[in-house]
Specification:
This protein is of the alpha+beta class. The chain is built from twelve helices and 14 strands. The strands form four sheets. A seven-stranded antiparallel sheet has the order 3-2-6-9-10-5-4. The protein has a three-stranded antiparallel sheet with strand order 1-11-12, with no helix packed on it. A hairpin with a 2-residue loop joins β9 and β10. α7 crosses α11. The longest helix is centred in the middle third of the chain and has 21 residues.
Length: about 325
């Protein structure tokens, strides 16, 4: 009938594909948050290439395979095609500059960039979140990109918070609020009802744990280790501190202090030309960011208390510190 025909025509019309908008497609894909990597390789002649990519993904555990994709128009593809290996450097949250360096057209992207040779000579970078050394396994045609599949022959897990990319902007990892919220339906421990509820040391340690559960993840989301963040925060403005002074201020073993200083120097966040560690301009900026995170957490936690209560609390803490010393 005419009605059936009309309905059929209407359905067919509704199912016709709309004109494909590549920009809208890219924006839609941008809703999927990804990590950020710099993939590198070197051919037999020593030519080095590196490209920023967020297409990295795992493929298989047995054998251990990973993949990423490269634009067929890329000048770097020739080296990736000829190289026996490639390396995937998973960037940490504080490596935005490294990401930008390998994302922009540049004659020599490795100029003034510190790296070391990985498997097959592929350049790898320090202070990443993780690194995967891959033997080239397969190259697959993927439309306007080549899909590069590698067999992981070695990897490094540094555990730093990763750099993310979401909706066209860099982002950081933070725990979901539902995962960090205290479960109010759970009854307090019976132990807390007894003598422990009057033990000041127990109460202090429990308070510190509760405070850190909200604060530490935000601090770690910067890509810095706790030791590195603590180091930057105790270095006020241009005041230089010696190793013994740092030891007193940050309360860490000398080995950890030396390692933190070495990492921060490599990132150009501190310098120590006279044996006293000082913030650089970049370090001062990073320290201010850390202090902002600390202040926001403090304001959030202590908003329920009066200024007088907080002053009393500070006095008690300072007295305890001075007596302990």
């Amino acid at each position: 009938s005419d009605l059936v025909h009309a309905v059929r025509e209407s359905c067919m019309s509704d199912n016709r594909p709309t004109p494909f908008d590549p920009r809208a497609f890219r924006r839609a894909l941008g809703n999927f948050a990804t990590g950020v990597t710099v993939v590198t390789a070197a051919d037999a002649s020593g030519r080095k290439v590196g490209v920023t990519a967020n297409s990295f993904n795992s493929v298989s555990l047995d054998p251990p395979l990973v993949l990423w994709s490269i634009d067929k128009r890329s000048n770097s593809h020739e080296v990736f095609e000829q190289a026996s290996h490639f390396a995937v450097n998973v960037l940490a949250a504080d490596q935005i500059d490294l990401s930008n360096n390998f994302a922009r057209p540049k004659e020599d992207r490795f100029a003034e960039i510190e790296f070391e040779p990985g498997e097959g000579g592929s350049p790898v970078f320090a202070d990443c979140s993780a690194r995967f050394h891959c033997e080239k396994y397969q190259q697959v045609d993927g439309g306007d990109h080549w899909i590069m599949i590698g067999k992981v022959v070695a990897f490094d897990d540094f555990g730093r918070s990763p750099l993310l990319y979401h909706q066209g902007a860099y982002s950081m990892v933070l725990p979901h609020s539902r995962m960090t919220r205290r479960d109010d339906s759970q009854a307090p421990s019976s132990h807390f009802q007894g003598r422990l509820s009057h033990n000041l040391y127990y109460l202090m340690t429990q308070a510190v744990r509760a405070y850190q559960s909200g604060y530490q993840p935000r601090q770690l989301s910067t890509g810095l280790r706790t030791s590195e963040a603590r180091m930057l925060m105790v270095l006020e403005s241009d005041a230089g501190l010696s190793t013994p002074e740092l030891l007193r201020e940050v309360a860490m073993p000398v080995r950890e202090i030396d390692e933190a200083v070495a990492n921060l120097k490599r990132k150009a966040l501190v310098s120590d030309p006279d044996g006293r560690v000082r913030l650089t301009a970049a370090g001062l900026e990073q320290a201010e960011d850390l202090w902002s995170i600390a202040q926001e957490q403090q304001d959030k936690v202590f908003s329920a208390f009066s200024a007088e209560q907080i002053d009393t609390f500070k006095t008690v803490l300072k007295q305890l510190i001075s007596h302990a010393g």
